[in-house]
């Protein structure tokens, strides 16, 4: 785990007891290990960053005059397959930065590229999925109906939609809940449905804005392990906004630390946790991803608690906390 100056290139409670979700006292979900990651050749796409944010400022006009400078001089590059968290004090512009990447707001100055295209074009090409703190499920659609929604909007056939929803619900451990209504699910289960929906169109980039913020601690830790597995299985690039230092460290290859408003990225902390999928292969241009066709087996189980109890984990948590303090954010 090392600190790197901001803007540098990347390496260049609701206790669920459903059949699809282990009980709280069940063994923690396995955490993928770097050495179990499917082998792959050099990835030419790795030359193009998944996300490149250059010289971005965001100023919001204020009613009655004046302006809020939310972000100033943001530089951030995210490699394909990388998991990057944004952390910083309340109001520092984390969500605004995520929304800029997702083309939900426009920069006042600077450039946002997603897989080499302007964010607007990347959005039109459906290059990303997004999930927020509130799952935002439609109460009048079943769980499968919610997952199918983006596919339905984009004219995918009913048969294909059904098959994809089944696949995704299995991925998030809710295979037995396809016909349930959102109100019949716990908060954690609803959030899994939201993540499944965000992944419906195979987006290469997943944008997550505090997806576990409303969950109790036990559920939250289990969801983190699930997300680590999903990321490993799908090879999706992830940007996560979180207030939780341990969550950022557990999940991320790098943690971008932001200053109080106007938000700037003041530090970027590399996280390398032995026994967990690390950043090194991403830097080598080998994306995380599912096994090659015909390849069987998944990651070898490494207990998530073991990862959270190792010295490297505490060292990274300390490094992020110190970076927050140094940036004036803690
Ligand atoms: N649409 C908007 N119009 C005006 N101001 C906005 C808008 N969106 C965000 N802001 C302002 O921009 C600043 C950054 O907000 P943002 O939600 O990005 O921060 P954040 O770091 O995600 O906060 P939190 O951690 O509390 O969720 C805040 O001062 C906020 O009031």
From TrEMBL:
Gene3D superfamilies: P-loop containing nucleotide triphosphate hydrolases. This is ABC transporter related protein. It comes from the Bacteria. Keywords: ATP-binding, Nucleotide-binding, Transport. It comes from Pseudofrankia inefficax (strain DSM 45817 / CECT 9037 / DDB 130130 / EuI1c). Residues 1-44, 282-302 are annotated as: Disordered. The keyword Nucleotide-binding applies. It holds the Pfam family ABC_tran. One of its GO terms (molecular function) is ATP hydrolysis activity. Residues 51-285 form the ABC transporter domain. The keyword RNA-binding does not apply. Coiled coil: none annotated.
